[in-house]
Amino acid sequence: MNVVIIGTGYVGLTTGVTLAYLGNEVTCIDVDKDKISMLNRGITPIYEPGLENMMKAAKARLNFATKYSECIINSDIIFFAVGTPPNEDGSPNLRYLYNAYFEILNYLKRKEKLTVLVNKSTVPVGTADELDSIIKDYGITNTQIVSNPEFLRQGRAMADTLYPDRIVVGGNCEAVECFVTSINP
Ligand SMILES: NC(=O)c1ccc[n+]([C@@H]2O[C@H](COP(=O)([O-])OP(=O)(O)OC[C@H]3O[C@@H](n4cnc5c(N)ncnc54)[C@H](O)[C@@H]3O)[C@@H](O)[C@H]2O)c1
Question: Cα(149) to centroid of ligand 1, in Å?
Answer without folding.
Answer: 12
